[in-house]
Amino acid sequence: MDIKYDRRSFIKTSTVSVGAAALPLTMVELAFAKPSDNFTFAYISDSHIQQIKGTQFVRNWDRGLIRAVAETNLLTPKPDFIMYGGDLAQMGSKPELDHGAEILSKLNGKVYHVMGEHDYYLDLGEYWSKLFGKQYYSFNHKGVHFVVLNSILTYDEWTFNRWLSAEQRMAEMAGLDNPNGSPFMVGDKQREWLKKDLAKVKKDTPIVVFSHSPLQKIYKGWNFWTEDAEQVQALLAPFDKVTVFYGHVHQIQYNQIGNIAFTSAMATAWPWPYPQSYAQAQQLLPKLTVQMNRADPFFERDATGWQFIDVNSGRASATFNLYNNTTRTVAFDPQAGHPKDQTYQDEDKRISPQMHY
């Protein structure tokens, strides 16, 4: 499968400077036998809008989201809808969520939302829910069943009984490498809802699932991990065509577990290093994933970018357009039976990644 995208064909105009920038936004196309059934949606994630004081916010994170919104509005054909993948705020405060929501309000189209841990652990999602609605839900669009999960829940003891204040709870969960954190999960109540929701869907219907954390176990130390991932995967296993999109990790990851294709999205804020760069604990990064070749790991816009994702028969083929770096395509290889990086999958073709943390 050789998938190439001409980015200019998706941009209405280049007269605005944002049109020429490589930005952290995902363009997703679902391909069907009938061209009339094809449709696209845009995917933006992990902006981490952070208040400094009053009306002052961290400019870099603001600009990343503002530019992604502007580029989404320039896409042609116009996407059917936009998915925001979570972590709109950094510390979950009302000013941060309001500011992020105001930026997102400039999007020209229907927007769906995923809950991120940075949006949740200050007030357990109360204000986020007032702004954006349900924390988990499903909808159908042109023959595809979409499921949105809140995958960043954790144990009740950690959530309700451990901390002196909501601010401390939020700060503990916000840390990337924090032994006081707690692993994410979908939870019993939501899995029961998912079971009932999927019972209404025919097994040959394409299923697309959005979560914030990966619905697989990658690296527990950084919470690149969902505690009940296998139980969620078991509910998805009976379906022929399943794709899971997730944010949270701020890097390129891809995997195939049974019939389920997994693809991550890059962030509009900053990149995270890969778990191998911090080898203090066992990590289970998908063996298919090839690290990004980062030109400058300390430049906040390096290793962020946007992607076009083509989903054909439940197999995700993603073209990653990296900021100031080489475009990469990850596509499902029918002969190999799993996704492959079309340029860097073979070890003798890889550029050794810079290992910084």
UniProtKB/TrEMBL annotation:
Residues covered by region (Disordered): 331-357
Q: Can you provide one Gene Ontology molecular function annotated for this UniProt record?
A: hydrolase activity
Q: What residue stretches are annotated with the Calcineurin-like phosphoesterase domain?
A: 40-251
InterPro entries per the record? Answer: Calcineurin-like_PHP, Metallo-depent_PP-like, STPP_CPPED1, TAT_signal
Q: Where is the composition biased (Basic and acidic residues)?
A: 338-351
Give the protein's recorded name. Answer: Serine/threonine protein phosphatase
